[in-house]
């Protein structure tokens, strides 16, 4: 388990009271063990810079600050990432917390590492205030579009901070735990990093509901019946697999505390329970997984409704396994997860398993859910709305549906035909009038299921447009944004409030103001920044000779002022302070 990475330190040396040398040695050992071509010289150089820049800084625990970057880099090395990512882990707080500039880092370590460090560097709270958190997450998402490894570093950083959260004040513990629950844990799930996700879930539960966590852990520690059941099951499974000529490793997979807690939430009034659960890792091809399934079902009767084939239809985070549950010895429910060795690696470290393949390019990683995030964030200038939309998007698991033209669409669970229509943009969504789901006419409010076939019925007759009722049907941020944009730009065309087709557009002056502001905002987004508030803009507008912001926005709309130059000037002004 990754928690073992921060095991007790060695006896302190007189000249190294915090055993920094020992921690770095364990980091290098982990990297050598899990990466075929480690560049330890680069790791040592990154450590020397990080140690020098953080020297004199301390954590809340009293430890030197450098112990945190070492721990983050060690988590990354234990996951099996490449050397550049390990080095970025060591350097990830230098630009944010020391005088070491991003330009100096880029000069010393190159663009690849600089991009990753910049991606996890928080934005300034002094100028952005309450919007800093939202814009930092926006920056993370944008950087992930260039290099997915930045999200892995962010998760390793949060994991170590959560391990040491007890040193924070109670209010900070709750705030950090809730942010971890709402955004970071779903991100770990989307990346398939279950080894991190499980530990974060447990620490969040322990932080927010300590009494419940204690009750569950005490139960798991005294679960003697489960051990006897597993000892009885394993020999029978091995005999069944041999009879089917399947070679496999059997792994006991007890539930971690949050998993038990989740089952208790699903079944109110029940106490902690951890029935037997086994992972069958076959030493062969995918066909051996199905043979193993047949062997297990030949011994015990499967429980109806518990079988899932996640090999034929892999999850959005690349996870693949066969899931089944049977009535085991003494009518005990026993769960089995059946997968190949490659699937097992992916089930633990997700996206990293793919990045370890020869020739893998982090910049070319194609994740449908990330592409969707990158698309809809462009439409949200407001920081609070962006963070709310991000939480909602990450809260729902994705399903795969098939459009009538053969196109596949990845949408959140419980999405509707309205969401599918807007996946192709507003020019398609606004023309939706009906939908056929699996060959039958369906209401636009019908929740879709994984694998559904959706045929959209569109109109080309003028006038056309959405109904306000669609806002109740839409589950994706992009659909909601496009529908709201329609009504914002046609506000005067709905005098009776019915939400039906518009007649008169908004005044040209208001359109120009909105156009100018959007030009600036899009230029900032391309640079990984956001338009968090108007305060920094007033000084820039005045320095350029504009009496107010409206005058500057009109100049942008009429192309008398270059949006890219203004964005650069604004960023320079903010960063200077």
Radius of gyration: 27 Å
Count of strand segments: 10
Q: How would the global form be characterised?
A: globular
Query: Which structural class fits the helix and strand makeup?
Result: alpha+beta
Quick one: CATH class of the largest domain?
A: Mainly Alpha
Strand content: 5-15%
CATH H-tier superfamily of the largest domain: Hypothetical protein af1432
Question: How does CATH name the architecture of the largest domain?
Answer: Orthogonal Bundle
Low-pLDDT parts are: 1-14, 492-507
Main sheet: strands, sense, barrel: 5 strands, mixed
CATH topology of the largest domain: Hypothetical protein af1432
| Total of DSSP H or I helical runs spanning 4+ residues | 28
For the termini, the CA-CA separation is 43 Å
> What is the helix fraction of residues, given as a range?
40-55%
Q: Strands across the major sheet, in which order?
A: 1-2-5-4-3
What is the total domain count? 4
What brief labels describe this structure?
single chain, 577 residues, alpha+beta, Hypothetical protein af1432, Beta Polymerase, domain 2, Ubiquitin-like (UB roll), 4 domains, five-stranded mixed sheet, 28 helices, disordered N terminus
Structure description:
By secondary structure, the protein is of the alpha+beta class. It folds into four domains: 2-167, Hypothetical protein af1432 (Orthogonal Bundle), CATH 1.10.3210.10; 224-355, Beta Polymerase, domain 2; 395-493, Ubiquitin-like (UB roll), CATH 3.10.20; 508-576, no CATH class. Helices cover 54% and strands 9% of the residues. The strands form two sheets. The chain has a five-stranded mixed beta sheet. A five-stranded mixed beta sheet has the order 7-6-10-8-9. Strand 4 and strand 5 form a beta hairpin. The radius of gyration is 27 Å and the shape is globular.
